[in-house]
């Protein structure tokens, strides 16, 4: 698959280790998912998925309960899902997903982040065609052969299964996400190191050394925006 998933998540974890930023973002995402259906994950696949992701990021239970209780309480706060596409230094490609209760504010903040850090906003579709929506599940304690056998027996179609350090990472089409989870759970695997629906670049690019710092500052600025949930890009930043 090119980019190692462990490297991506390790960098996110390091950045978020000493802040509550990631918890706030998950709280918003859980609230939105709970409002869209039943506030019970067993009856709401969207909520169930978000909770699985939250688990892999060690989101505290009280954050999860607070968001679900807010949805149960009939809060009328609503959020729009937005996707922005743009270019960073040296033509690098970036996708920004946001949840917002103020579209104008979010658009302005994202545009400013690009503009002040050597990038520029693109039109819808200008970047996304170079990325593939992908389901990613990671687990420990099994070999690549074990995982392949579990998935084949459950008739789950995947793109790739690879060993990355001490984990096995499975890449598949998004519509196979729940089937993968069920296959693993039926095999007695209930803990995952990663459970994501993401956008993976079809081809990665390397930036010249003098552009890397500017690019990383742009990504950090975008990720620090309260309304931004996820940022995807096509730059190989190494390990």
UniProtKB/TrEMBL annotation:
Domain of life of the source: Bacteria
Source organism of this protein record: Neobacillus citreus
Location, primary (coarse class): cytoplasm
Domain TACO1/YebC-like N-terminal: 3-74
Keywords: Cytoplasm, DNA-binding, Transcription, Transcription regulation
Signal sequence, start to end: none
GO molecular function (one): DNA binding
GO biological process: regulation of DNA-templated transcription
Ranges where the TACO1/YebC-like second and third domain occurs: 80-235
Protein name: Probable transcriptional regulatory protein KHB02_008270
Compartments, as annotated in UniProt: Cytoplasm
UniProt similarity note: Belongs to the TACO1 family. YeeN subfamily.
């Amino acid at each position: 698959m090119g980019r190692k998933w462990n490297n991506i998540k390790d960098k996110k974890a390091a950045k978020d280790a000493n802040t509550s930023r990631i918890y706030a973002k998950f709280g918003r995402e859980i609230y939105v998912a709970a409002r869209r259906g039943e506030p019970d994950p067993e009856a709401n696949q969207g909520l169930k998925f978000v909770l699985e992701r939250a688990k892999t990021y060690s989101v505290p239970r009280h954050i999860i309960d607070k968001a679900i209780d807010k949805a149960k309480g009939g809060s009328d706060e609503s959020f729009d899902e937005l996707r922005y596409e743009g270019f960073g230094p040296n033509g690098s490609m970036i996708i920004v997903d946001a949840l917002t209760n103020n579209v104008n504010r979010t658009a302005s903040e994202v545009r400013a982040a690009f503009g002040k850090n050597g990038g520029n906003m693109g039109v819808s579709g200008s970047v996304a065609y170079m990325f593939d929506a992908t389901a990613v599940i990671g687990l420990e304690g099994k070999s690549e052969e074990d995982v392949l056998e579990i998935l084949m027996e459950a008739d789950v179609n995947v793109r790739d299964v690879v060993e990355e350090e001490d984990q096995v990472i499975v890449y598949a089409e998004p519509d196979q996400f729940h089937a993968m989870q069920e296959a693993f759970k039926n095999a007695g695997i209930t803990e995952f190191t990663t459970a994501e629906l993401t956008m993976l670049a079809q081809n990665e690019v390397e930036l010249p050394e003098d552009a890397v710092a500017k690019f990383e500052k742009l990504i950090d600025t975008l990720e620090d925006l309260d309304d931004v949930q996820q940022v995807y890009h096509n730059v190989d930043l190494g390990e």
